[in-house]
């Protein structure tokens, strides 16, 4: 059965056709496109119509290549959304979660309601860009859109709506808003009314695998396509990535590695405890009754931004040249806490890295390689910190770490992760989210009986690279220094 998965990341999107041959998954990327946010004045938006155009292009290519799918699913990053008015039109361009308009809103709501109450209701980590604070920021800024809105759709819900004409909210993504109450299994009316948002905007979320309509007739006519069914997959890309972790046991740790690094474990009930709140862990909804007890780590973003800046200033090097610079530079000179808010927004990463080092009394990295080395070493040391916290919270002990996502193509990062953890890393598949998206569609069609079978087939279909830890003593020593330095308050 031929299936089509659209996987949209913060930097690029892809359309991937999946087929099964001899009980192995065969994937083919038929379309890849960049996802370029657009800045207008001080505001940062997603170019949602361009993304929809690329989705249509994917369908055109599938038709030309004679790979018409029997089901289509879309996953994307979380928290962002569009608002729909009375006539069914999108009222405004969706904002980018790195926009500054939410500045200070989370802190204000924490004061008004108490962090305990918000966490108790939602089990979701405090990130200033969560949908709750984006809507509260729109309210604070008097956005006229709120007066006209009648429906709320997350990014994949919205694109799916453009395709099918049906407005359906999906569960895994809904949980990331910090407006969904996992105990009551519904949107949290108290939180919504606190920010003055009517609960009528929200439909009860459907579970991954639910049927979600067919291509709408205008699209069928325009592209000359039949009424292909659309499936609501695990539409949060991280939820899809976790579906694709090729683990054999139920108790494993994962790291979904892309612009963000999402590290955690799968649990059957949300862990809503004081300790989870204090460590700022999250319990995002997963597929098939699971929750993703995890933490957002700033990920490759800092390096991606730094590389982009260097290119803008005329320093052009390929990814592999960057890795060579990094590997060739002196080890363990200085560290940053990648999760410091200093690094959240787009901008001058070189000076921010140096500012962090200055304020914590460390040597300032100077060369390209030294800055990159500081970023990567700090990132993998943070992985160790978060893995240990995941163990504390879940009461599990992990023999190693599964890494999935595009970041695993950086072999140095995988090796350093194993070194920092002092445990093996099992890396693969790189297209985790797209493969998880396909898997949920196959389960919905009855091709796989359940997620266990899907994971076993994924394990047999994609190569897994194994990294054993090296240079244990030097990394152990570096971890001690990292912990001391990142405990120093900055700013
Ligand atoms: C990863 C991701 C994270 C989410 C962040 C912002 O792509 O979906 O899980 O916290 O993007 O939406």
TrEMBL record:
GO terms for cellular component: cytosol. InterPro entries: ATPase_NBD, FGGY_C, FGGY_N, Rhamnulokinase. Keywords: ATP-binding, Disulfide bond, Kinase, Nucleotide-binding, Rhamnose metabolism, Transferase. SUPFAM superfamilies: Actin-like ATPase domain. GO terms for biological process: glycerol metabolic process; rhamnose catabolic process. Residues 3-243 form the Carbohydrate kinase FGGY N-terminal domain. One of its GO terms (molecular function) is glycerol kinase activity. Residues 253-444 form the Carbohydrate kinase FGGY C-terminal domain. Belongs to the FGGY kinase family. This is Carbohydrate kinase. The lineage of its organism: Bacteria, Bacillati, Bacillota, Bacilli, Bacillales.
């Amino acid at each position: 059965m031929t299936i089509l998965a659209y996987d949209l990341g913060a930097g690029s999107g892809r359309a991937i056709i999946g087929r099964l041959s001899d009980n192995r998954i065969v994937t083919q990327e038929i379309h890849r496109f960049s996802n370029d946010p657009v800045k207008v004045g001080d505001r940062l938006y997603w170019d949602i119509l361009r993304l929809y155009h690329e989705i249509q292009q994917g369908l055109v290519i599938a038709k030309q290549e004679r790979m018409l799918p029997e089901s289509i699913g879309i996953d994307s990053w979380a928290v962002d959304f569009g608002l729909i008015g009375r006539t069914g039109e999108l009222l405004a361009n969706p904002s980018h979660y790195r926009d500054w308009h939410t500045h200070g809103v989370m802190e204000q709501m924490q004061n008004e309601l108490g962090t305990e109450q918000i966490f108790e209701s939602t089990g979701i980590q405090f990130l200033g860009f969560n949908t709750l604070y984006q809507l509260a920021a729109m309210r604070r800024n008097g956005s006229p859109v709120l007066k006209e809105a009648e429906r709320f759709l997350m990014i994949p819900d919205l694109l799916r709506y453009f395709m099918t004409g049906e407005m359906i909210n999906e569960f895994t993504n809904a949980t990331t808003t910090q407006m969904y109450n996992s105990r009551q299994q519904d949107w949290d009316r108290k939180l919504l009314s606190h920010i003055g948002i009517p609960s009528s905007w929200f439909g009860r979320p459907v579970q991954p695998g639910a049927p979600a309509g067919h291509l709408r007739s205008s699209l069928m006519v325009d592209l000359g396509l039949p009424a292909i069914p659309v499936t609501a997959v695990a539409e949060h890309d991280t939820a899809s990535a976790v579906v694709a972790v090729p683990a054999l046991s139920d108790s494993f740790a994962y790291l979904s590695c892309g612009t963000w690094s999402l590290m955690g474990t799968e649990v059957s009930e949300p862990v809503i405890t004081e300790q989870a709140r204090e460590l700022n862990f999250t319990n995002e909804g997963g597929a098939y009754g699971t929750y993703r007890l995890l933490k957002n780590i700033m990920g490759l973003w800092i390096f991606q931004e730094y590389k982009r800046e260097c290119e803008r200033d005329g320093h052009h090097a390929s990814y592999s040249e960057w890795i060579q610079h990094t590997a060739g530079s002196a080890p363990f000179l200085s560290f940053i806490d990648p999760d410091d808010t200093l690094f959240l927004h787009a901008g001058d990463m070189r000076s921010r890295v140096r500012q962090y080092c200055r304020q914590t009394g460390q040597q300032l990295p100077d060369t390209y390689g030294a800055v990159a080395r500081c970023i990567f070493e700090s990132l993998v040391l943070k992985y160790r910190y978060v893995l240990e916290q995941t163990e504390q919270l879940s009461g599990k002990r992990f023999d190693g770490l599964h890494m999935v996502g595009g970041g695993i193509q950086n072999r140095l990062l995988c090796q350093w992760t194993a070194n920092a953890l002092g445990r093996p890393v099992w890396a693969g598949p790189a297209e985790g989210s797209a493969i998880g998206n396909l898997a949920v569609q196959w389960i919905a069609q009855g091709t796989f009986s359940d997620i266990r079978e899907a994971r076993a087939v994924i394990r047999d279909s994609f190569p897994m690279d194994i990294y054993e830890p090296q240079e244990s003593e030097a990394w152990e020593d570096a971890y001690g220094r990292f912990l001391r330095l990142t405990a120093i308050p900055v700013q």
